[in-house]
Amino acid sequence: MTTAALESFAPWDPRTYQQGSGASQQLQQHSQMPSEVKVREEDTNRSGLFETGFPYANLPPLVSTFTFAQDSGNCNSKFMRSTLYKVPKTDAIMKETQLPFAVVITPFAELNIYEVCQQEIKEPPVLDFGPQEPIRCHRCRAYLCPFMEIGERSFRCGFCDTFNQFETADFTDFKNRPDLRLGVFDLVATNEYCKHGRAPKEPAFLIMIDVSNNSFSIGMLPLLCHNLEKILRNLPREADQIESSIRVGLATFDKAVHFYDISSASPKMLVVCKQQYLLTIPKYTFSADFQEPFVPMVDGLLLPYSEALPGLRAALAEIPKIFSQSRTTETILQPVVQAGLDALKCADRAGKLIVFSTVLPTYDAPGKLKAKNDRSLLGTDKEKRALVPQEDSYTKLGEQCVKSGVTVDLFLFPNGFIDVATIGQLSAVTGGSIFKFQNFSAQKDGIRMLYELQRHVSKKIAFDCIARVRTSTGIRPITFTGSFHMENSTDLEFATIDENKAFLTEIEHDDTLKDSAALIQTAVLYTSMTGQRRLRILNMCLPVTSDYHQVYRLADPEALTAFMLKQAVQLYRDKGSAEMKKSLSSRCAQILATYREKCSEGAPPSQLILPESLKLMPLYVNSILKNDAISGGSEMTVDDKVWQMELIRGMRTEDVMPFIYPRVMPISDLQMNEKEELKELPKLVRASADFLDKTKAYLIDNGVVLFVWVGAACPRTWVQDVFGVGATNQIDTESGLIPEKDNAHSRALRRVIQLLPRGIRQRKKIVVFEKSKLEPRMKTCLVEDGSGAAKSYVDYLVEIHRKIRNLVS
Ligand SMILES: [Zn+2]
């Protein structure tokens, strides 16, 4: 056994620590603990080219390290990232280590500009074998891939060991087929893989906007109408396309739904209810009986952007005028989604409903919801009651949407309760996203909202997807987490999957692994943005071992953190807070105790010994335990809490990491003179108040919120340069805006914000100065610190150490 990979500390004794003397000793102890910032810094020596490996997948660099992967037969870790890069041979080893074997799958992940898969394009190649059906193992149905052993006229399936005869006669150049060399590729699907045996139509996005009184008064409606035309210019297209194939449509709603025929420059409005009215704008009337919404079937409803443009422009100009005097304060939501779904169904297109809603749907119609205030239940043992849907009709409607390949995205602008737990099911089930702008003000939040929308509608996306994960004999996927619908135990139905959406599967042994390799293949049948039915195939091959040390050495701490976070949310939903916390901490201790027992027997028991690969695990687990999504109490709203839980559902590993351990960087020392260029982020510091210097200002970023924290003794010149005021207490912290000033400090700060990796959301910026009333919110990002019931990193490590000692003795 090697000890090179062991990280050891000075002996820890919980009692001496608790009696610990001064602050300086505490800081010293703190500095000695494994540092996430240091680990990330050290990993940058793996930046640059990363070969994915063959036959076995290489352990990928950390998500923060800039790499460009070269596909050598295993897929890029952006597509599939495993918690283990050496898989235990037997279930007994798995159980003993308690390490989860899970894979985070982002089937349509965006690649960077240096990652060419083939033919110098950023996307995996699309292979078209004409009418020939994809070659698959006749027994386990795995697709031909680099892990099939190719013979003269047959191949041995790497997954189930079965011999298969090739049915095709043409073997020339067979060995050069890309599907025998690449970890990821697309196959054009034959008609057998299409719904009803025929090719699908181009997908569509239907924009559905709330036009009630509230929507106008908060400024959302005029702002959106003014900018939507420009935003929709960015619909996603494939590399060789000039215009997107995606159709667009427009609808508005209050107590009724209004569709727009945008086929001409004088658009017509159709008000949908029991009877049909065909009106020419700006005349407007409605009748509101939603028991039987009719199916809006018009030719001019869903059109390619260029054809829709004159009508779209005219309608968007008229809508704010028509509804500016609206007195309607109550709205509907479920009939809106139902009508949108019916419209897409009638047009026989998969796609998205992008719904903008400002109030709780309280109007007397199906899906009517009650206002309630359960905030006081948060953080108590009754909180589960507050987090579940009021009724299941939204979930059922979501399931209907999935069946027709329709995703629901919600852009919410509430001033009060809007019941994300209930209406959010529409997105949760259909692979959609929820964007929430609480107390929206067009002036403060308008630009952020428009950027968010533009980014959202321009993402690469796959429609009407069915995913299946296959593994080699001896292991199988047992649970799945993400935004999908399942009707059997193997097929995951997603109405859409975009480039930022991940799902996760946990794999278990049902036997001893016979071969030296564990294979995983994810196949996603989908409709492309151009309306072509395709299969995306992702492959991964991991070596198998009986050596505990190898298992720990090649564990991936980040995929493991993503797994732990998603599992924590699931446990929290199912079993409540106390049970979840207990379960997560025990698992963390058990993982480390087994390491202690199997890999470092010689060390004295008082010493805490952590595997090099997992030395940050206690830090990450502690941070998960105190994350707002799980731990937040009555200082947050029920909607906020559910929104955060939903955000985690489809999170990629790349987004999980800053969310769990935010980036903290000093920025007040930075200057950027006129002709200079800043290319890198400043050096990060640990996420703890111990490491913040009050003479500086910092950026603190978790990918959702970006804080600018200004220390009490931060130089006045910096405050003046950046905010144009003489003292920190004069900074306009309300607006969250960072003014554009023509000086070196201001330029540097704005440049650093530009350099931040894309967050999971368009970040809300909050300016906080030391000891101001917003500071406690920022402090939740300082995850190494404790407060109230939330333990500090030091205290948690002491607790885990105690648990490990109990387990080992
Ligand atoms: Zn097979």
TrEMBL record:
Primary localization class, coarse: membrane
Similarity comment: Belongs to the SEC23/SEC24 family. SEC24 subfamily.
Name of the protein in question: Uncharacterized protein
Gene Ontology MF terms in the entry: SNARE binding; zinc ion binding
Bilayer topology term: Peripheral membrane protein
Residue ranges constituting the Sec23/Sec24 trunk domain according to the UniProt record: 200-457
Keywords from the named record: Cytoplasmic vesicle, Protein transport, Transport
Protein species of origin: Caenorhabditis brenneri
Biased segments, Low complexity type: 18-32
Residues annotated as domain Gelsolin-like: 680-751
Domain Sec23/Sec24 helical positions: 556-657
Pfam families associated with the record: Gelsolin (PF00626), Sec23_BS (PF08033), Sec23_helical (PF04815), Sec23_trunk (PF04811), zf-Sec23_Sec24 (PF04810)
